[in-house]
Amino acid sequence: MDRSVARQGVIDALPLFVPAIPFGLVVGLAVTDAGLNPLVGWSSSWLIFAGAAQLTLITLLGSGVALAAAIGTALVVNARHLMYSMALAPIFQRQPRWFRWLGPYLLIDQVFALVTMSPEDDADRFRTYYLAAGATFWVLWLAVVALGLLIGPVVPEEWNLGFAIPILFIGLLVVGTENWPEVVAALAAAAVTYLAAGLPNRTGLLVGSVAGVTAGTIAERVRRG
Amino acid sequence: MGDLAAVVLVGAGTYLMRALFILALAKKRIPETVLIPLRYIGSAVLAALIVALLTDSDGKVSIGVPEVSGFLAGGVVAYRTRSQVWTLVAGMVVYWVVRSLF
């Protein structure tokens, strides 16, 4: 294992975790507000390991909607992971079997953003980087949700630390974009997501992503002539 | 008991969605016509996530001068330094400062 690659994975993960701190605290608080068993609520952070879906599920369980509706809604919120799985399938072909089973467990937005925008060509280095970043998020996420259960939201809401996520994603896009079809894909995805913002359960995100992929593919056809 | 079952089911569903194509395509030859769109998923999803994260629960996208300023600062610093840390610091500081002026 290449230690410098592992270190880079941790270093790249830490800034992306900063905005997850208030979010994790809110998830912890939501467990308390929803009247859930604290251990069950906290366990969502390692059983589901996806903040937005956890928050959706916990809030809905507390609001007394039908169990099936709560589960279905949380899964719709998480449907974007299908696209991550598709995008990384070619890279994972060169990985050992154990990692093809473990890797998806750690495939959260931030890990996807990091690995998709800095494509590591070497299979071993990719795996080390992926595991280092993923494990960093995993440990910190479990800790911060537990903290939210114990102490509530200690980060002032008016800081709006959550805004750090779009900033960091912009940074990853700027650094990772290599050709103009990718620019077309990003702009089309942003525009369509904006127009579809009113759709329920974050489905606008899916519609916008599909539009972006389509636009990028067409742009590449045009480029190739 | 019902709550735990719900958490376990959503967890299992989430893992399946994350693993589906990685496991199903592990040994398959992926044709070039499929590989091309796959290359644009990263850029498209990140851009879509940025907009989705600025959308409130009523479906209203809140983006004004402070947000755009933060994006510009973060984008320029990311391009120059390639550092997540400095991107975060620059973007948030500019966002906070501009927000306090408006």
Can you characterise this structure?
- The complex is a heterodimer of chains A (225) and B (102).
- Chain A is mainly α.
- Chain A folds into two domains: 3-175, no CATH class; 177-225, no CATH class.
- Chain A is 76% helix and 0% strand.
- Chain A is built from twelve helices and no strands.
- In chain A, helix 2 (20-34) packs parallel to helix 4, helix 2 crosses helix 9 and helix 11 packs antiparallel against helix 12.
- The longest helix of chain A is centred in the middle third of the chain and has 29 residues, at 123-151.
- The mean pLDDT of chain A is 91.
- Chain B has 102 residues and is mainly α.
- Chain B has two domains: 1-31, no CATH class; 40-102.
- Chain B is built from five helices and no strands.
- In chain B, helix 4 (65-81) runs antiparallel to helix 5 (84-101).
- Chain B starts with a helix and ends with a helix.
- The chains are: A mainly alpha (225), B mainly alpha (102).
- At the A-B interface, helix 1, helix 3, helix 4, helix 5 and helix 6 of A face helix 1, helix 2, helix 3, helix 4 and helix 5 of B.
Write down the domain tally of chain B: 2
From N to C, what is the helix and strand string of chain A? Answer: HHHHHHHHHHHH
Major beta sheet summary of chain B: none
Rg of chain B to the nearest angstrom? Answer: 20 Å
Largest interface: A-B, 99 and 66 residues
Q: Name the helix and strand elements of chain B from N-terminus to C-terminus, one letter apiece.
A: HHHHH
Overall pLDDT score of chain A = 91
Helix/strand-derived category of chain A reads mainly alpha
Q: What's the helix count of chain A?
A: 12
- Main pleated sheet of chain A: none
Percentage of residues in DSSP E strands of chain B:
under 5%
The helix fraction of chain A, in percent, is: over 70%
What is the terminal separation of chain B in angstroms?
A: 49 Å
